Amino acid sequence: MSKAKKLKLIEGEFPFREAKEILFNVFYTKINFHQRNNFSYKERFGKEDPTAKKRIPALKKELVKLEKILNEAEAKDKRLIISSEITITLSDD
């Protein structure tokens, strides 16, 4: 195992519309990734990809939470402070 490396993906304070666009793009891109993988997996193996089967509903559930946060921010005319970090560790598997 190697030491974990950290990358900042999103860092800053954003007006509602920018925050919404950034965050929805991140979630929709990840959902689309799993949907494409699931389609490919079905074509090759005749069944759903087990990872996609778990991750798509989990990501959609997080989107519902995000919508609530964004609705609150919009209603209160608040800016959003967003910090997102990716941690990468190389595996020996």
Descriptive account of the structure:
This is Transposase. The structure is a single chain. This protein has helices at 16-45, 50-75; strands spanning 5-14, 80-88. It is an alpha+beta fold. Strands 1-2 form a two-stranded antiparallel sheet. It has two helices and two strands; from the N terminus they run βααβ. α1 runs antiparallel to α2.
Write a compact overview of the structure shown.
The chain is α+β, with helices and mostly antiparallel strands. It has 2 helices and 2 strands, in the order βααβ. Helix 1 runs antiparallel to helix 2.
Q: Hey, roughly how much beta strand do the residues contain?
A: 15-25%
Enumerate how many helices there are, as a single number. Answer: 2
Q: Largest sheet, if any?
A: 2 strands, antiparallel
Distance between the termini: 9 Å
Give the overall shape. Answer: flat
Q: Strand order, main sheet: write it out.
A: 1-2
Low-confidence stretches: none
Gyration radius, rounded:
17 Å
Beta strands, count: 2
Class by SSE composition: alpha+beta
> Overall mean pLDDT score?
96
Protein name: Transposase
